[in-house]
Amino acid sequence: MLARKIGAFSLVGAISTLAYTGLALAFGKLGLHPVPASFAAYAVGMAISYTGHRRLTFGSSRPHREAFPRFVIVNLFGIVVSIAAPWALTVHLALPPIVAVLTTTFLVPLASFVGHNRFVFPSASQPPHKLS
């Protein structure tokens, strides 16, 4: 069961990443500045990710009003980790940038998977974690 979830999680992540990349490039070709192009592409990628993880990875029936805000929280946490880890590893530990990038490449998906599995889309056998 866990291996299937990890495989589906990876597949959905790859699809949403490819969608983001393609859309960001396409929006740029249409003349949109890179910042709003990236934001718009990220929003579409996030919708793909939410739908794919909800249906394919975790098979969740949790109401959207509960799951989606939690999904956003987990994604915001991923952004924080993607900033904090390289900063801590390069600035405070003086490690080479490649170490920071590789560590972040591992930590963000791991934190995302755990957050989605336990907090956003818990299985019926798991008690849902409360926000309060």
TrEMBL record:
Keywords: Membrane, Transmembrane, Transmembrane helix
One Pfam family it belongs to: GtrA_DPMS_TM
Organism: Edaphosphingomonas laterariae
Record GO cellular component, one term: plasma membrane
Compartments, record wording: Membrane
Domain GtrA/DPMS transmembrane span(s) in chain numbering: 9-121
Membrane topology type: Multi-pass membrane protein
InterPro entries the UniProt entry points to: GtrA_CellWall_Glycosyl, GtrA_DPMS_TM
Primary localization: membrane
Superkingdom of the organism of origin: Bacteria
Transmembrane intervals: 7-27, 33-50, 71-89, 95-115
Protein family: Belongs to the GtrA family.
Protein name as catalogued: Putative flippase GtrA (Transmembrane translocase of bactoprenol-linked glucose)
GO terms classed as biological process: polysaccharide biosynthetic process
